[in-house]
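SUBJECT: protein chain
CONTENTS: sequence, structure tokens:
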Amino acid sequence: MSATAQIGVTGLAVMGRNLARNFARNGYTVAVHNRTAAKTDALVEEFGDEGTFVAAHTPEEFVAALERPRRLVVMVKAGEPTDAVIQEFAALLDDGDVIIDGGNAHFEDTRRREKDLRERGIHFVGAGISGGEEGALNGPSIMPGGSAESYESLGPMLQKIAAKAQDGAPCTTHIGPDGAGHFVKMVHNGIEYADMQLIAEAYDLLRTVAGYSPAKISETFRDWNTGRLDSYLIEITAEVLSHTDAATGKPFVDIVQDRAEQKGTGRWTVQIALDLGVPVSGIAEAVFARSVSGHAALRDASRHLAGPAVRELDGDEAAAFADQVEQALYASKIVAYTQGFHEIAAGSEQYDWNIDLGKVAAIWRGGCIIRAAFLDRITSAYEAQPDMPSLLSDKSFAQEIAAAQDDWRAVIATAVTQGVPTPASAATLAYYDSLRAERLPAALTQGQRDYFGAHTYHRTDREGTFHTLWGGDGSEVES
């Protein structure tokens, strides 16, 4: 087989197949391979008119079809299957060739794989790809990590197939070395969890307290999507809420079991945030909310628990409450994104990745699940202040939250008094109040730690580390 393909894709499930078609549609000759040869042949037969494909039925044929430096995209299940495929193909590659993992790999696995292949002269790129099967076909947001040299070879191709923001910029950039790309994709998914949970809580409040029907809430979300909440998730929420189940005639949302599943990237975001010591409380509560929804036996056993009587609003009162919910949702979303960007900054510092937060925001403006209009402003904020410690340090966002905070607090208060669970919304407000507090009760916590464990403390009036002789004469010693 002659080497005619500029890129190859192995693993032709929905994401891999659509990514291969995307490359072909953009003028590249694409080698395609799958362990089941029938899938390879089916892709070429069904979509061969979209571009030029080279069907390869063995790993050797696949590698032989690729031009040097060979660029090989792996789209298989994360974990051991990815390791197996990488090792199989690495044995057939030469110095300077590039393996790209486009799955949702844990960034530590990517760091390990990159180091191993680098020592063998092969470039390894961990590329986070967001946008689902539609994005893979029509233009996703792509977050590649790896060496700068590998991006020189691969970058122009990724820029061509990636989504384009409204200003025409491709939604991809070189994120940083080794696992940086998959780390950023992980946090992207954590923000996605928070965004979805915050929207779900807004829906619950509008339905339970304002008394709105799913169709009415759909109209409300469509209206919100014309303003500052303009985003993909708000858009599809309106679509889901307007859908009627054909079998029963009921609102679709009422016939779906209230158990939200998860694949693990949200949990990883929270776990790594704990390792880094980064507070991502809004994201964490969104992850825990899914966990609560899945514990059916626990919930069934708790039906007897008492709660307040819900007072349903009506008319102008309900409309005014809906306006407050919009304010609370927007403020909470800003905080959730703030927490995510803080985690990326901390990871970048920990692993010496030198990630440009402005560029991350820029490539999330199109293609990805959390694409939203206000990412333009986040991009501008980080371009103006690359070392900004927090997104809330940006004056415009701080001013918007200041304007929204009374309604935000009123919504959380209403949720508490009416017994409507809003874990993510409440957590984002608590985070905001923690940041603006002049003094936190952590001073007491540190005093307790010194009492039972002699963990010492720092004073506000002079330098040094101190310990009080508790249970003795109460004197203080410098450690």
Observations:
- The chain is about 55% helix and 10% strand.
- The mean pLDDT is 95.
